[in-house]
Structures are given as C-alpha cells and as structure tokens.
Write a structure and sequence with these properties.
The chain is of the alpha+beta class and 95 residues long. It has a domain of 65 residues. A hairpin with a 2-residue loop joins strand 3 and strand 4. Helix 1 crosses helix 3. The longest helix is centred in the middle third of the chain and has 10 residues. It is globular and about 30 Å long. The mean pLDDT is 82.
Amino acid sequence: MRPMRPFNFNTSAELFPAAIRKKKRAGFTYRRFGTAAEAVQFAMEQLPTDSLNGAYLQVEEARFDQNGIRSLYESEAFPLPRRPKPDTSTDADAA
C-alpha cells in the first residue's frame, strides 16, 4: 500500500453514490457534507454495498472512488469513531 498524501478531513465534501438499477425505488442521491470525515463515514457505514460500488467522493478538486473512500476510512488519520467490525465467531460452534 502506498503512503497517502496529507488529507484534510475537515474540508466540505460531496458524495455521489451510484444508482441502484435493480430496485424500483431510487437509491441514495447526491449529498453534501460539512466535512469529508462525515461523508466517508456515511459512505462506509450507511450506504448499501450496491450504492457504494460506483460511488465517488468529491473533496475540492480531488475525486475518490470506492477504493479511495475505503482507504480514507481505514487510514490512521480518520478522525471519527469507526463502527465496530462484526463478530464472525458463533456460539453454536461451542455447543
């Protein structure tokens, strides 16, 4: 993984999710956020996977695709608390 350039998570950002073609109702539409951190968190924790695939984040002149959004979310510099990862172990195995 190559090192990221400094990124200002406090800059306003615009999120353009991909349209969900398989569903009758529209997916998430364009949304503007006060900070890029809020936009990244929303994309990773709230958007359905099919909306995130093809989505992009615009921060000033920089544009981030799904992989770029994920890199920002997983970076050590990400300032917001992340949603806990789901526990993949099951109690049924112990019984």
